[in-house]
Amino acid sequence: MKDDDILEILEHYDITVTYDFDRTHENIDDLYWAATEAAGIQFRFNKDQILDVVFLYMVHREGFEAVDRTLLDVPIFESFDEAQQTCLMKNIPFKANPGELGTPGHKWWIKLDFGGHTAHYQYKEGQLIMITLGKKADA
Question: pLDDT tens digits, residue range 50-65?
């Protein structure tokens, strides 16, 4: 969290960091959250204050505006099929929930494995609504 690039983003968007501790005494690791609804981005930092997840809101939802796609340096797959085809063509390991045809969960999500990190794409009614970038725990 104290990385210069992260600090610059937090300061640029005037983001407050929220400490989320184990209130229930269930041995759950503490987390830190930082979000800018106006820019459509949310960060999660682990107990060691290391950035481990970035949520990119691709459409207006849950109080977040859509992220400015021109600022992103991640592949954007507008459809489940496009993401799956890219994985198959480029031999990118992936997991997916294709769901049942005709149900709301049809082609709901696909998660690409890039070795040290993952990119999880979520769709609703065929539209890309969220990209979640995650650092692998063992990376």
Answer: 999 999 999 999 999 9
Can you tell me the distance from the alpha carbon of 133 to that of 1, in angstroms, rounded to the nearest whole number? 16
Secondary structure class of 116 (helix, strand, coil): coil
DSSP label at residue 110: E
Q: Is the pTM of this model over 0.70?
A: yes
Chain Cα centroid distance, residue 22:
23
Go through 64-96 and write b for each residue having 16 or more CB atoms within 10 A of its CB, e for each that does not. Answer: beebeeeeeeeeebeebeebbeebeeeebebeb
User: Could you tell me if 98 and 80 are in contact, meaning their C-beta atoms sit under 8 angstroms apart?
Assistant: yes
Pairing of strands 51-57, 31-36: unpaired
CB 65 within 8 A of CB 73: no
- Kindly state the tokens that stand for 118: 């993952």
**CA torsion 107→54→36→45, rounded to 10°?**
140
Phi and psi dihedrals of 27, rounded to 5? Answer: 60, 30
Nearest 5 degrees, angle CA 44-CA 67-CA 96? 65
